[in-house]
Design brief:
Shape: elongated
GO molecular function: electron transfer activity; heme binding; iron ion binding
CATH class: Mainly Alpha
Structural class: mainly alpha
Helix content: 40-55%
CATH superfamily: Cytochrome c-like domain
InterPro entries: Cyt_c-like_dom, Cyt_c-like_dom_sf, Cyt_C_IC, Cytochrome_c_Oxidase_Subunit
Radius of gyration: 22 Å
Number of strands: 0
Protein name: Mono/diheme cytochrome c family protein
Organism: Neolewinella aquimaris
Keywords: Electron transport, Heme, Iron, Metal-binding, Signal, Transport
Length: about 120
């Protein structure tokens, strides 16, 4: 009985932690959830989660060789490519597998706001 008690205790913990989630799909089978449009995406929130460590809050920190986005003059297409595929020198991580196309576009547009000369 003394040997059985620890096993029962572990089983109880596993059962208690494993349940409670509703796995019923909210969408009808065969449908895909709607994709957020670029203008609806909170790029600032994504920036704080994914980019701030290297680029800084205002895009000018340059940690680990990150580009200074206050001085960058690259166009939107270039920025989308870099965010999607990473930088040519391998310094920046590719986010094409992590972020949606809409999120990447929103992020590229957001990075352009750091360079005030590009807004004119």
């Amino acid at each position: 009985m003394k040997r059985l008690f620890p096993l029962m205790f572990i089983a109880l913990i596993v059962l208690a932690c494993g349940g409670g989630e509703d796995t019923t799909p909210t969408e009808a089978p065969g449908t895909t959830p709607p994709v957020a449009k670029a203008q609806d995406i909170d790029a600032k929130k994504i920036w704080k989660i994914r980019c701030i460590a290297c680029h800084g809050l205002y895009g000018d920190m340059g940690t680990n060789g990150a580009a200074n986005l206050q001085e960058a003059t690259s166009d939107l297409a270039y920025r989308i490519n870099i965010i999607t595929n990473g930088s040519e020198n391998g310094v920046m991580t590719a986010f094409g597998e992590i972020l949606s196309e809409e999120e990447i576009e929103a992020m590229a547009k957001y990075t352009m706001s750091f360079n005030k000369a590009l807004e004119q």
